[in-house]
From TrEMBL:
GO terms for molecular function: calcium ion binding. Keywords: Disulfide bond, EGF-like domain, Glycoprotein, Repeat, Signal. PANTHER family: PIKACHURIN-LIKE PROTEIN, SP2353, ISOFORM A. This is EGF-like domain-containing protein. Pfam families: EGF, Laminin_G_1. Disulfide bonds join 205-214. One of its GO terms (cellular component) is membrane. InterPro entries: ConA-like_dom_sf, EGF, EGF-like_Ca-bd_dom, Laminin_G, Neurexin-related_CASP. Residues 179-215 form the EGF-like domain. Residues 4-183 form the Laminin G domain.
Length: 216
């Protein structure tokens, strides 16, 4: 049983993490988020000072977009339907070289990036939210999809990148505690029960399971 808290973002706020796993050849991401506005950058991997390569997840007019540039052009893979605001939505991304699959609440969309490049490299840090630049902001690719940050919450405790959880926060700006009941999207796996208090939650795991979300 471990207490975890859920960050809330407001257009210019963000968290920066070191990239948690080797992701240049394949990148898989799973996350749950709770938007209160229909536009904003959710997640960004890249560093415009060293490479054009990036991978982003953003909300554009209510549709989720997965975008990446491996060095020879941008893939844009968009969810077909508009997602509801003020609800938790789960998203998974699977990229193998140029080919990507975006799954939003169980519905898949496929796409590919143009040209010959197949590696996401060099890999920059991972950011949640933000991306507006300006004083204290971080710079994103002009092709990143959204240039304002997400408004809403991201369950960073259950976020996985190539099966790894996020490490420690390197830097952060303007992040506050999410006001949504963190148990409302059932974060506990394998039959664990969720207990929320003071906007944090813990999972009580059945016998044989452990980990923050009873995932082990
Ligand atoms: Ca590349």
């Amino acid at each position: 049983m471990l207490q975890v808290s859920t960050p809330s973002f407001n257009r210019t706020s963000y968290q920066e993490y070191s990239s948690p796993a080797p992701i240049s050849l394949t990148t898989s991401i799973s996350l749950s988020f709770h938007p209160t506005s229909s536009n904003g950058l959710i997640l960004y991997i890249g560093d415009v000072s060293t490479t054009r390569d990036f991978l982003s997840l953003s909300l554009v007019s209510g549709r989720i977009q997965l975008r990446y540039d491996l060095g020879s052009g941008v893939a844009i893979i968009a969810s077909s339907s508009v997602i509801p605001l003020n609800q938790w939505t789960s998203v998974t991304v699977n990229r193998v070289r140029k080919d990507g699959i975006l799954v939003v609440d169980g519905v898949s969309t496929n796409g590919s990036s143009p040209g010959f490049a197949g590696l996401l490299n060099p890999v920059g840090n991972l950011y949640i939210g933000g991306g507006a630049g300006g004083v204290g902001g971080y710079q994103v690719s002009p092709n990143a999809g959204s240039h304002v940050g997400l408004t809403g919450c991201v369950d960073t405790a259950t976020l996985r990148v190539n099966s790894f959880g996020l490490g420690a926060v390197i830097s952060s700006r303007g992040v506050i505690q999410c006001q949504v009941d963190p148990c409302s999207h059932s974060p506990c796996q394998n039959g664990g029960s969720c207990v929320s208090s003071d906007l944090t939650y813990s999972c009580v795991c059945p016998l044989g399971y452990s980990g923050d979300q009873c995932q082990e």
